[in-house]
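Think of the structure tokens as a kind of shorthand, similar to the way a musician reads notation: each symbol stands for something richer, in this case the local conformation of the backbone. In the example below we present two proteins back to back. Begin with the first one, reading the sequence and then the tokens, and try to describe in your own words what changes along the chain.
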Amino acid sequence: MLEAAIKPQLDQYLQLMEGDVVLRVSAGEDNVSNEMLELVNELASMSSRISVERATLERTPSFSVNRPSEETGIVFAGIPLGHEFTSLVLALLQVSGRAPKVDADTIKQIQSIEGTYHFESYISLSCHNCPDVVQALNVMSVLNPNITHTMIDGAAFKDEVEAKEIMAVPTVFLNSESFGNGRMSLEEILAKLGTGPDASAFSDKDPYDVLVVGGGPAGASAAVYAARKGIRTGIIAERFGGQVMDTMGIENFIGTAYTEGPKLVASLEEHVKEYGIDIMNLQRAKRLEKNDLVEIELDNGAVLKSKSVILSTGARWRNVNVPGEAEFKNKGVAYCPHCDGPLFEGKRVAVIGGGNSGIEAAIDLAGIVKHVTVLEFAPELKADQVLQDRLHSLPNVTVITNAQTTEITGTDKVNGISYVSRETNESHHVELEGVFVQIGLVPNTDWLDSVERNNFGEIVVDRHGATNVPGVFAAGDCTNSAYKQIIISMGSGATAALGAFDYMIRN
């Protein structure tokens, strides 16, 4: 079951187990059950601390991870391989007694949660966003006996996925009610449960020298460069890592042949923490005002002050803004082909957008779904020619240019897409089950009134990263930079930090 190359590394991890673990297995006669049995038996053969027992659980095939005399509430329904193999290994270590890598304040928050919480997360093994959710909920189950979590592989439980009309992963249910969709960190889950910090938690913070708003590559770079100057630095991040957390493969980060978004973000966060930077995660800024100091007001009402501010709020997926898009989000309308593509296996889908991201999505989906229809507004595709050549070689792809999407149709979920030909002005309708929107990004600058922005909403900066407001700088995808790339964002973050430092020593 496990590849030979994985076993030596897995063996090293299993040696870190601190106590015994019992895998209670509920299996039938189907292929998935047989493969699951093969996996758990192979794990047991590699460590004397792991034993296997047959049991009857809520779902078959599934298995729970427990201490010999205690049910931890962690269950894997399906086979946790692919991106979820790490989730399984961490569950084994944590259930065995090895402490999870969570700070003391977060542990206290989890342990103080009262009531009964049964989480169910529906995932796909190809989803790079899902492990964050699975691992966070598993940690909560380990630390609090009132919390349980079952990971459910949608491919192994298709009937259940269809019945609940789940069309995006990860999808989380809490006590049988919808709880959330998409990547969620442990801190975000706790915030949704109402255990996050309020304005009083920020009331005693002294003014910063540099306050960075945004925790993506530009923000992380800016914070590191500022902190290295020995000045008081803070970061406000709605989600540390930003859009990069949703990026699968990164092959153009110079010096690193290949990495993935979450891995890069983990490295960025680790680097930032090396400098004692005050990281305020899960906080959204809603107002900027320049007085003697620059003031940033947060959604929770707290006001932070700083001698200088660097705006690195990044960008978000651009919506096509037609009827049906919002109504059917996660009900057939999706934005991440890597995550949600497997849920549309054997179905018909459309991709809106003919740029690199759209054509890459279409190529990816063509290997999974029955048919892909690409809709491009312009007279021709904008993607690189090598991608277009690959696309046109696929037998189950139709490309429609000069197409203006007018509506995404459906009842309880998507059943089609309508468009108008810009050449003939004729209306057309395509019957399908899924729509992937891939039309670029829009800057997260809607909340800024006093800072100059261009027609696209991008913050206008000079060569030092300075805006029109003294003491306010900006960097990354939220600015009018010529190109939106991770490495360019990092460079602009460094430029803005040096610009802010120069501003302070001169003022």
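Once you have a description of the first chain, move to the second and do the same.
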Amino acid sequence: MAEKTPVQLFHLEDKRKRYRRSDFYLRIGVLGLLFLIPFLFPSYKTVDLAMKIVIYAVLVASFDIMLGYTGILSFGHGMFFGIGAYSVAFLIGKYGDPSYFNLMLGMAIALLAAAALAVIISFLSLRVKAIFFAMITLAIAELAIVLATKLSGFTGGEDGISLSMPGIFAVSFSAGEFLGIEITGRVFTYYLILLSCLGLFIVMLRFTHSPLGRVLQAIRDNEQRAEALGYKTFIFQGISITFGCVMAALVGGLYAMWVGYVNPESCLGVFEIMLAVLLMCIIGGMGTLYGGIVGAAFYLITETFLPDLQHLARDFFPNALFLHNVLERWSLVLGVLFILIVIFFPKGVIGSVRDYLARGSR
């Protein structure tokens, strides 16, 4: 029997330690909390917030594959999110009846359309580098918004498209009560999307930890050296873009299933979607995947609850007019918090914590 190489020995030791690390139990705890959210905090606001954190965490992870693992900045990633949302909305909303077949067909069309468009954009746009590639993707994303708005007969325009879920996922469906909570179609939809997002996240983890993922990281760190080693970086970058965009499209379809409504602003908006995703990625940490969870949770929780602080300030500090004025402009507070995170966590929360733990273990 051949003796194992040092690399193989390292991976075997890493696998043995994987399930004894504290971060493993933290992940299990977070996942368990997400599964229990509908029963622990059954209010619509809390369940909706938890679901959107899950959806955006996976969307940010798909963007991180391009930015954090391959070094490609794209401002058109939100467009693929919108493609997925509109594909599902067309099939079970405007042009088809709510059915399981149409739902699956919509997701399949989203996957194929996103893959085809991503390949075309890759081969046309990767000839330019850095900020020039980002500007091209931004122009394409803006074009998609214009088309979705102007072709109102096809897309519904600014009015958007409303859709209903089929069978047990319909809002009106009820399976009775369990632990004092009514099990409605909304609850079934929550768990369907949660399991689907978990599956997509695991696929992305496997992708980044594969030999292909390591080649992408080599291209990110030094593209010229990767080319010198014989790798066709253009092809590998195209694979990264296509894979990330397909994941984004599938997440977009899940988002449409949850909100039951799509329009250009909510699904294709560069500033509404892309800017938020970029901030979440920076907050959580680029090149980590798990940073998407932290970034999405921080951004969406602050965005949801910061506006409520002005009401609390009026109740507890009725004469503090300056405080009222500051909290009324809650986006300013969010900006200050973002600056503090960048200062104290220069590699994002996950990236900086990993660096700190690595230094402590030496």
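Compare your description with these statements about the second chain. The chain has a mean pLDDT of 85.
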